[in-house]
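re: that chain from earlier
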Amino acid sequence: MVTGPEARILARLATFPSSLESAWDVPRDICLPGLSEYLGVVRSALHAPLNELILKDLVIERKTHVIGGGSRRRKVYHITDAGRIECEGIEVPEKFEVGEIFGKPPSKIMLKGRDKLIQNLKSENKLILTGLPGIGKTSLLRSIADELVADGKIVRYATMESFKDITQIFSEWGLEYSSEKAVLNSTKNEVLILDELQEVSLRHLDRIELFAQKSANLIMASRAPLPITEGFKIVEVPPLEIEDAIDLLPDHLENRELVAERLGGHPLALQMHDENSVLPEAGSDLQEWVKEVVMSGLGDEKVALDELSLLPVPVPTEYLQNENHLPELDDHALLRWLESGVELHHLVRNVRSTMLTEENHANAAKHWSEINGDLARLVEMHHILKSGGEIESHLLSNAEALMARSSAGLATLIGDAIYRNPSQSLHRIAAMVAIERGESDIASEHLANCNAPDLDFSLALLNGVKGTKIPENSDPRLILSEASRRLDDILPGNLPPSGIIELIEKINFEQIGNDMKKVMLVAIAHIRHAWYISQNKFLEAAEIRENLESISHIDDPQLQSLKLRSQIAETSVKNASFDSLIETVFSKTGLRATMLQLSMVEKCDGDRAISLLNKINMPSIESQKNLTSARRIAAKIWYFRAIYKTHNQFSSLAESIALWQQGLCPNAATEATELMHKLL
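^ sequence. v structure.
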């Protein structure tokens, strides 16, 4: 026979396959901290039942590497065959799930003392949970999500971080859309959950607040002060009742009630409590207890605590200088484990971070400067800012690379840098980033503080200002970009406007160095070729390809792409050779191939068009953020999805409009908007 605590441990371990017994990398769920978190009890409460299970040969113990838990081996636990037989008679009540949860929810836990609160809250449509760090807001959100799933709901879960924006939250919810309209329409019968709202950067708060106001079913959690309040029911999560708090503590503890009372029924404080440490005085401040008791009880692992205290976001463990000390911090219940990495529990982080200096940040910046990758650059620059170091040159040198993959983090850091020490160059790059992100109001604010006619022009296009003209004496690259934009600024099936050839003829090659001249001439040839194809002037297009071949070679991928584009335009869909063209074009990859594939969809109709459309891969989110061409291609795909009703029609059109706007194609966006109004 096994006791209740032993049965719960066995039932949990039985959910993991026996193959883990010989694995080198195992999940954190089967080490002591992971079991403790799932079962909702302090770590010390598991020592006795685990030892008994080992003595009964129902569980075995070994040391191995825990995924994401640092390089040191840790104790983990496996259920034996005898344990699995014993488990067969243990009933674990679980609701039958008929809904589904998407996104990145935290691990399931057995929450104690919250049943009534969960039942009261799960029917709320617009709810914000608030309360002290560690009071159990995240656990409560996960339990509410599980209840909603059991009731048949679709739930989407995401966690805010300081380098995230609304589009990254959409992605974390498992959505393809980047526009608020598209998301609101596609999720109107679903429940959206957003944890750690207080981490949102001021740079990104407005869009999140606007979305939150319009959303019909949104549950969030945040520490005070709340960034958003209007339109939401606000519930402060209370401490556990003393009788429930006692259940988190080990049975052998004689003064369980006193411990629960002195720690105020605070779940994290109960987890962090050491039986040998001093209890706080009645009514004393919890943060002072953390400072004076919890942190004072640490040894060498304090260097890891300090390192984590300074971080703005969770990070992978392998990036840390002191990752070998993570197991000790984990054993003290000081860590939060997320899919993106590890961080300190915010109660501890908030206490310790105020005790550290600019020198600590400067040392951290040096460490992160030696690590490659976008996250490392963002964290490095965060530390530079916090240390009072020179940040402008770092932002300028990393802007292009970060714009591609971490524009939200880049925008956050630029905003912080401008707040500290504004300059024209920072305002210019802030405006450029805002335009790339489709944030016209923010771009306008920054352009008021710098002289940038090229960006003024881009902003006018973003705002859809009619009659917008390219600045006089523009840089040749801007002229080429504008000519290319005009070719793209049309709905599929329409002809491009006149004046494109006349525009590129204005380019003054005296402004161009010899190194760039060949590149520019090739780009001009591509624009001319696209124009002639649109006008069915195939002989002129062929002449351009011949000229390109003379300075390149017949197998040049760009030249091959031009030939295929001409063949598609010249070949009837009823011709047998069109089928071989389909095979050729869909065997290729990359953005050029996607453009060719879309031109084939454009030539077809009905089931044939749908069949081709379903084969086309959407450009990656990374490429859409980095390349204007990728956004325009994605806009076309969403447009066709709307026209052929392969996806939600309203959401697809809304997404295509947003992407055309961000791709600086106001005419296409306007025409698509008119079509949407007709549908409505």
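The two ends are 66 Å apart (CA to CA).
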